[in-house]
Amino acid sequence: MTQHKDTPSFLFENQAYELGYQVVVGLDEAGRGPLAGPVVACACYIIPDAKLEGVQDSKLLDPVKRRKLYEMLIEHPQVVYAIGVIDASGIDKTNILQASMQAMLLAVKNLKVQADYILVDGSYFPKTTLPGLALIRGDQRSLSIAAASIIAKEVRDDMMREYHKQWPTHGFDVHKGYATKEHITAVKAYGVTPIHRLSFEPIRSLIK
User: Fold this and answer.
1) 59 three-state secondary structure
2) Which residues of the chain have pLDDT under 50?
3) Does residue 26 contact residue 144 with C-beta atoms inside 8 Å?
4) What pLDDT does 2 receive?
5) Residue 6's pLDDT is what?
């Protein structure tokens, strides 16, 4: 099988290690776009030389494969990860970009190892004294970011399935809070829930 040119590698991590950094951590988040639920970030430190087959940007994986990789990653002895969560009210207090950055910094803070260099998916870099890089399409280029993307996505999906138990009328287990037709119809029929982002359209207009 031909390897995709954007298959994640350890290139950026190794460049940082060659500069003398000791703990290079990949950061990614899940849940920027939904109308409901939190934004969830993952900080992932992969011990150099770890063998992690199949790890890829979570968006490029089918749900079954992604779940298997998630379970492999969270149990892997050479993977250290932590989660940061900003809920809907926290998102409404600032904006989704700032909330995403806050979630990433929380994830770094929650790590059991002390990061000294971070690789961040996207074009924005959180406000921190830590050095690092913001990598556009980082989840397709950096193994640490790709692993973080898988963990963040699965953790958030599990949270949305739990929310479904509280509000079964809204279908959070299916659409995970995204703006599907079914989701909008449910909000119109049953109203908003405490996990809806009131600053997001069309939710903002529906509550006027």
Assistant:
1) helix
2) 1-4
3) yes
4) 35
5) 63
Strand, coil or helix: 149:
helix
Q: Which domains does the chain have, with CATH numbers?
A: 11-156 (3.30.420.10)
Tokens of 144: 């640490």
Closest by Cα among 106, 113, 129 to 27: 106
> Are residues 100 and 87 in contact, defined by beta-carbon separation less than 8 angstroms?
no
**Strand 39-46 to strand 24-30: parallel, antiparallel, or no bridges (unpaired)?**
antiparallel
Question: How confident is the model at residue 1, as a pLDDT?
Answer: 29
* pLDDT tens per residue, range 173-191: 999 999 999 999 999 999 9
Strand partners, 27: 43, 120
What does the alpha-carbon distance between residue 70 and residue 61 come to, in Å, rounded to a whole number? 11
Query: Are the beta carbons of 41 and 103 closer than 8 angstroms?
Result: yes
Nearest to 37 by CA among 147, 178, 171: 178
- Residues 168, 153: contact at Cβ < 8 Å? no
The owner of tokens 């990949």 is: 26
User: Please, are residues 81 and 43 in contact by the beta-carbon 8 Å criterion?
Assistant: yes
